[in-house]
């Protein structure tokens, strides 16, 4: 049987530490609902919170990617499709900006430039495919 001092510390930790963290996410969740935040944005926020709370790197992105695939690609929900298109477009622009700013930089090999150009084209193809799915979901 644990001694009383250990039991008191454990009880105190259970009351103080998690409660403050839990209250924060509870209040954030309530605020997002009261503001009429898109339900997918709420799920994204909770996934990011859980990733931080669990220290499990990549958890939020895993959830977001699955939402994009299941609710966006498979079920045709507009918001996840738009979110994925936006993310792809942002990444494509960053890659293109890197290529543009390193045009005269000899530390970037032709092989690397070729792979980056291929990546840009792959992003463009996926964006076009998702835009087609988006237009079908709006009909």
Give the helices and strands, then pairings.
Layout: H1 4-34, H2 39-54, H3 59-74, H4 78-101, H5 110-137
Rg: 22 Å
Poorly predicted runs of 5 or more residues: none
DSSP helix fraction: over 70%
Q: How many DSSP-defined strands? A: 0
Structural class: mainly alpha
Largest sheet: none
Number of helices: 5
Task: Average the pLDDT over all residues and give the rounded result.
Answer: 86
Describe the structure.
The chain is mainly alpha-helical and 139 residues long. The protein has helices at 4-34, 39-54, 59-74, 78-101, 110-137. The N and C termini lie far apart (65 Å).
What would the keywords be for this entry?
139 residues, mainly alpha, 5 helices, 0% strand
Short description:
The chain is 83% helix and 0% strand. The longest helix has 31 residues, at 4-34.
């Amino acid at each position: 049987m644990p001694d009383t001092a250990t039991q008191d510390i454990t009880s105190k930790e259970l009351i103080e530490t998690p409660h403050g963290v839990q209250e924060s996410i509870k209040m954030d969740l309530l605020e997002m609902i009261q503001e009429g935040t898109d339900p997918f944005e709420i799920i994204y926020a909770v996934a990011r919170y859980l990733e931080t709370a669990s220290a499990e790197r990549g958890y939020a992105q895993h959830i977001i990617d699955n939402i994009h695939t299941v609710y966006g690609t498979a079920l045709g929900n507009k918001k996840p499709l738009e979110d994925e298109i936006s993310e792809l477009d942002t990444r494509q622009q960053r890659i293109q900006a890197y290529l543009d700013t390193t045009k005269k930089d000899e530390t970037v090999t032709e092989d690397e430039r070729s792979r980056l150009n291929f990546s840009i084209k792959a992003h463009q193809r996926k964006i076009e495919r998702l835009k087609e799915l988006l237009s079908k979901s709006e009909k």
